UniProtKB/TrEMBL annotation:
Record PANTHER family: GLYCERATE KINASE (PTHR21599)
Bilayer-crossing regions: none
Keywords: Kinase, Transferase
Family affiliation: Belongs to the glycerate kinase type-1 family.
GO molecular function: glycerate kinase activity
Name the record gives this protein: Glycerate kinase
Biological process annotations from GO: organic acid phosphorylation
Length: 347
């Protein structure tokens, strides 16, 4: 029997690799002969670089740059086979680096990402992948464009990984949809959207590119739009990572799949890891089970693609206690053991 385990990180609690290993430990404690294969996985947000390094190898390159508030820092990106650079936006401009407020949303810039793009080009990269999740910026990607303004990236394949399809401006644009969580007031967001609308018109006139017709240009505070202007394209974060890691080839030979994320609800079906994994399972008629920290009553499309879903919680605990790494890992280990006992009995 072969079980594939690919669980996204439980944000603020445990990494994908840690959760996968805990599930594997639980399964093997009950059934030592089961073949358990794990995949560190992400959907284009935090953890994407780690997932790709785990599956593909490569070296971390350390670069001197500035963060989203223009404070000096050093940041790393992954360089694989001397050709593919994987940059994680949150490494430089992550929202975790600030306490979002009215001042930060107006000052935060993607400028610091430019140093990583330029370094990758200097080293001969022929492809750059940017995971855009977890950004704390809302500058329309203008900082990045300014940082690389004098450079030609036309010979480099650039791909932005996003888990949203929002366009650049308007009611579904980066300012009005994501700006509030980044510290914006109604007045600030209205001003940012006016700036975004003006930029859309300028680019449409000067370059004949309509950012409003390209899904994902509003991702990461408009960073998606900047990548389009650098000649790049936008893809589903999970889809690209799964393709690079060749997960599908392993899943089609599996008997059971275990996936999951910290909080699963109806939005999970909008490009998140558990939905992508379950869809691959569905394609090859392999049942998928999801383990989560918090499980909503409304799972939407997830109810159709999953065999079952479980919360790992074993008793009532304060949130802070439940999210402690050692608690989460022990809970998911025990859950895996019990679920596999039931599964094997049923078989």
């Amino acid at each position: 029997m072969k079980v594939v385990v690919a669980i996204d990180s439980f944000k603020g609690s445990a990494t994908s690799a840690e959760l996968n290993q805990a599930v594997k430990t639980g399964i093997l404690a009950a059934f030592p002969k089961i073949n358990v294969e794990t995949f560190e996985i992400a959907d284009g947000g935090e953890g994407s670089m780690s997932a790709l390094q785990s599956g593909l190898g490569g070296n971390l390159i350390n670069v001197k740059t500035v963060d989203l508030m223009q404070r000096p820092m050093r940041a790393s990106y992954l360089f694989i086979d001397e050709r593919l650079a994987v940059i994680e936006a949150a490494e430089v401009v992550g929202i975790d680096k600030i306490k979002p407020n009215e001042k930060t949303i107006q000052k935060a810039t993607t400028f610091g990402l430019g140093a990583l793009f330029l370094d990758a080009k200097k080293r001969g990269a022929t492809e750059i992948i940017l995971s855009m999740g977890g950004s704390g910026t809302s500058d329309g990607g203008l900082g990045l464009l300014e940082a690389v303004e004098a450079e030609d990236f036309s010979s480099i394949k650039i791909t932005g990984l996003a888990d949203v399809t929002n366009v650049y401006a308007g009611a579904e644009g980066y300012a009005k949809v994501f700006g509030k969580q980044k510290g914006g007031t109604a007045e600030i967001l209205e001003q940012q959207d006016r700036t975004a609308q003006a930029f859309v018109e300028k680019i449409k006139k000067e370059r004949k590119i309509d950012l409003q017709k390209i899904p994902g240009t509003g991702a990461a505070g408009g960073l998606g739009g900047a990548l389009i202007l650098l000649g790049g394209k936008l893809e589903s974060g999970f889809g690209k990572i799964a393709e690079l890691l060749k997960i599908e080839e392993t899943i089609k030979m599996a008997d059971l799949i275990i996936t999951g994320e910290g909080q699963m609800d109806f939005q999970t079906a909008k490009g998140k890891v558990p939905f992508g994994i379950a869809k691959l399972g569905e394609k090859y008629d392999v049942p998928t089970i999801a383990f989560c920290g918090s499980l909503s009553e409304d799972l939407g499309e997830m109810n159709r693609v999953l065999l079952a879903s479980y919360s790992i919680q074993r008793r009532v605990l304060p949130l802070e206690e439940a999210m402690k790494k050692e608690v989460a890992l022990k809970n998911i280990e025990l859950l895996a053991q019990n679920v596999l006992k039931l599964w094997c009995y049923g078989q």
